[in-house]
Amino acid sequence: MNRTTMSLIGAVVALAAVTGVAAVAAPGDGAEPTASKATRLPVQRSALMCPAPTSSEVGETTYTAFTPKGAGAGKGSASLQPAEDGLADDAKKDGKDKKKAADAKPVAPLKAPGTPVTATTDSSDAPALIGAADGGLAPGWSVQQTTDVSAGVGRGLLGTSCSAPDTDFWFPGASTSPDRQDYVHLTNPDDTAAVVDLKLYGKDGPLKAASGEDIQVPPHSSVPVLLSTLSDTRATNVALHVIAREGRVGAAMQAADEKTGGDWLPAAADPASGASGLVLPGIPADATSVRLVALAPGSADADLKVQLATPTGAIVPAGLETLHLKSGMTTAVDLKNLTKGEAGSLILTPAEGSKAPVAAALRVTRGKGADQEMAFIPATKPVGDRATAADNRAKGSTLSLVAPQKGKDVRVKVTASAGSEGGSPVSKTYTVKGGSTLAVEPPRPNGLKGTYALTVEPEKGGGPVYAARTLALPHGGVQSFTVQTLPDDRGTVEVPTSGWNMSVLND
């Protein structure tokens, strides 16, 4: 094999380690390409975006950045920078935004894996953030954005895991009702403009939209869009579809309710995964109301079996053995006090013969009357090799682990990192029975000072496991809370071990 071919292999393997999965085939005399063995290597670069946190004058936001130990090798860098204002209405203002962003210091820069770094702001005009990590800090780099708003519409604890850019997002559980203010934040990390379409689906199908197409998101900028301005129809339960026709964006949806406070609604797992089942983990034991919002976005209806994975096993919620979803129509089901005092996770599996994709999310409420707070739980992907929750405090964290397949128990190692201001790591292993949810107060670092991260690693040989972390803080008559699901951190990708006929598949 000559030097040029070897260089090509090196370049492709490096690209695969950044972008996705590499497939390889050995050459032959007219023979069909055959797959070669592959190995998993740490990614070499990661990108994340955090939306603008709040416009409230009484809000404080904490950013917590973390990379687990042992995933990569060598030195690296990881930090966030302010995005520009994508709504700038003249060249003068746009120039000021660019200069301000260029002069800004990095936010929550990491120096080494294994110890979280935090940054705080109480500014009502704090910008969206765009960040990148490389080298030994890229594999599993996570950033949690947590905002405590003490009063007003959207009060409470608002939390979100800063997300990677993509071209397609689904947000079941959005609303255009008069008592909700829902914004979708679109952030463009690249050097060229992105063009985005927004589509809303209600109970009778797509909402007639006055706007929502050809939304321009300038380079390195963020644009917030109020959903109620997209259509004259006021609907309590809608599903939002975000499609980047040109470029790519980070998308995050913030919901603010007059009665139940506010939180971030993360994008749901790819609807295609609904064809094999969906898991929505981490419903708190003291939930007073649970609403399921789901949509079959394809051309076919969907029929789902509904189960609740409790601490003792899976049960069928009373009166909801199956759920029928009409194509293109958003369905909402109030499950009320679904958990009956026990933590649980909702499992949706296709009924016999149903293969339609499904997007789904839960709106969960705690408290009663004037003392209510809400959070959202989207359908999520399994933990896979490893997942991380970056922002945990000395009190208030609950880790939910669910093994959805009956008879397939899973052992899960949970590691509490060093604290951001001091403390040493601690690990503990839990066994999750197949078909059940295990909700625990996670381990805390010895001598904890500051905040810490939780890393979840299932042992090989068991069934799939899904996870969510609930963070609760005192807030008046009810504990404010937010729930983050923990999908695989995509810290590694498959790359070929031999051969030269390669193609890279974006993961």
* Rounded Rg: 22 Å
Uncertain segments? 1-35, 500-507
Strand numbers in spatial order across the main sheet: 6-17-13-19-20
Tally of alpha and pi helices = 2
Class derived from helix and strand content = mainly beta
Distance between the termini: 29 Å
> Proportion of β residues?
over 45%
Proportion in helices = under 10%
The beta-strand count equals 41
Mean pLDDT rating: 88
How would you sum up the major sheet? 5 strands, mixed
Based on CA inertia axes, which overall geometry fits? globular
Set down the secondary structure blueprint:
Layout: H1 3-19, E1 20-25, E2 38-42, E3 45-50, E4 59-66, E5 76-82, E6 84-85, H2 91-103, E7 107-110, E8 117-121, E9 129-135, E10 142-149, E11 156-161, E12 168-174, E13 180-188, E14 194-202, E15 205-206, E16 215-217, E17 221-226, E18 238-246, E19 250-257, E20 261-265, E21 278-283, E22 287-295, E23 302-310, E24 313-315, E25 322-325, E26 331-334, E27 344-350, E28 359-368, E29 371-378, E30 387-392, E31 397-403, E32 410-416, E33 422-424, E34 426-432, E35 436-440, E36 446-449, E37 452-458, E38 466-475, E39 478-485, E40 492-496, E41 501-506
Parallel strand pairs: 6-17
Antiparallel strand pairs: 1-41, 2-40, 3-9, 4-8, 4-10, 5-7, 5-9, 10-11, 12-18, 13-17, 13-19, 14-15, 14-16, 14-18, 19-20, 21-27, 22-26, 22-28, 23-24, 23-25, 23-27, 28-29, 30-37, 31-35, 31-38, 32-34, 32-37, 33-36, 38-39
